[in-house]
Predict the structure.
Amino acid sequence: MRPERKLAVERLYECLADGRYDEARSLLHPDYRSNTQPHETSPDALIEEIDAIKRAMTSLKRVTILTMAEGDMEVILHRTEGTDPSSGEPVAFRAADFFRKADDGRFIEHWDAVTFDGGDLFDTIEL
């Protein structure tokens, strides 16, 4: 039995979660942009969003549910949860993130669908 190889999308999320931003940037095309998050217009904007989430939540934990790839697309389904330090309330969201790769293999486009369990995290962060 061969060991399962991680998709680049899982590696991207691990790098972002661990603060390995230079490695994350190596997976993102310089023209990277999100089609669903208007502020996410570059690799740096994505990293700023991740930093804002990290500042807005304590006890942050992310769990991958599923990854898959077909053609130039990779998808990750995941759940992130933590605590809002101002209220002590739990905050969690589930997301499906879709990434299209450029010809060089780096992610160039992103779409997402996010569902919040409780309060809307994006109401508490500034981007």
DSSP finds three helices and five strands in the chain. Residues 120-127 have pLDDT under 50 and may be disordered. The chain has one domain: 8-123. The beta strands are 28-34, 58-70, 73-83, 90-101, 107-117.
